[in-house]
Amino acid sequence: MLKRALGTCALSLSLCCAGVAAAAGEGPLADDGGDAEAVDYARTGWYLQAGFTYGSARKLDDELRQNADKAVAPATCMEGVPPIPGPPRIPAVQPTCDPLVFSVDSLSDGLGFNARIGRRFLPHLSVEVQTEYMNGFDVKLVGAPDVSVDALSFSVNLRVPLLTGRVQPYGLLGGGALWVFKDRDFPYRAILYDAESESGPIEFEEIVDADRVGAQVRMGAGLDIYVTEHVVWTGEIAWVTTLGPGVNDLKYLALGTGFAYRF
C-alpha cells in the first residue's frame, strides 16, 4: 500500500513536471497569445484547487505502541488435569493465569483528497479555505479487532508566494477544525479488558486521543507552476498538528499534488 501510494505520487509529479517543461518550451502561454512577459502570474483574483493527499500519521502509531500495555485480555487459566489412578501417575497440571497484552502490528498511511477556494489579494498574499479528507489510517492489532481511522478537516490558510513569475514557491500557515472518525464498530465493540482493575472493556479512545473534534494548525510549503495563464500545477508538503484531547494523537505529514484554476 505504501509503495503503491508513493509510486502514484511520484508518477503524478513526473508527468506534471514533464507537461510543464513541454508547455514552457513550446506550448501557448496565454489565451491572448502574448509572450511570457505579458502574462501577469501575480494578478489578484479568485482560484479553485483540488488534488490528492498522502498522509503519514507516525504520532498515532507511536502512541498506540507506547500505550499498548494499558489494554490486556482477561487472565486465561488452564483447568488442572486430575491425576490418573494407577501407575504411572500423571501429576496435575497447575493452572496458569497469564494476561494477554495486545500489540500493534502495523499502521498504514492514509490517502485522501483536498479542495480549496481562495483569493489572491496581493502579489505576495492569498487567503484560502481548505477542506481535506484523509482515509485509511488503518491500525492492525494482534489480539484485538483492527481499527480504521479517518479524518476530515477545515482550515483557513494564509498562502504567501515568494516569487511572482511562472514558478512560485510559497509558504503556508493556517488553522481550523479537525474531526476524527474511527471504525463504526467502536466503541460498541471493546478492544480488550483491563485485567488489573477489572473495570470492564477498554475502548479505543482510552488508548489514544483520536476520536472526536479538535483544533488543527497547518504549516507547510509548496510550489506553483503555471502551465498556462489559468491552469496551475501545485505540489505541497505540510505538517498538520492537532490540539485538544479528542484529536491530540492524530498528527500527520501531508504530501499533496493537484491542479488549480486561476480566474
Report on the structure:
The strands form three sheets. The protein has an eight-stranded antiparallel barrel. Strands 2-3 form a two-stranded antiparallel sheet. Strands 9-10 form a two-stranded antiparallel ribbon. It is mainly beta. It has a single domain (2-69, 104-190, 208-262), classed as Beta Barrel (Porin). The radius of gyration is 26 Å and the shape is elongated. The protein has helices spanning 2-25, 58-66, 204-207, and strands at 45-56, 76-77, 97-98, 103-107, 110-122, 125-142, 147-161, 167-182, 192-193, 201-202, 213-226, 231-243, 252-262. β5 (110-122) and β6 (125-142) form a beta hairpin. Helix content is 14%, strand content 48%.
CATH class: Mainly Beta
Q: How many E strands?
A: 13
Indicate the percent of residues in helices.
Answer: 10-25%
- Biggest beta sheet attributes: 8 strands, antiparallel, barrel
Structural class: mainly beta
- Reading the helices and strands in chain order gives HEHEEEEEEEEEHEEE
Major sheet: arrangement of strands: 1-5-6-7-8-11-12-13
Low-confidence stretches: 20-34, 73-79, 89-96, 184-199
Radius of gyration: 26 Å
Shape: elongated
End-to-end gap: 37 Å
Give the overall average pLDDT. 74
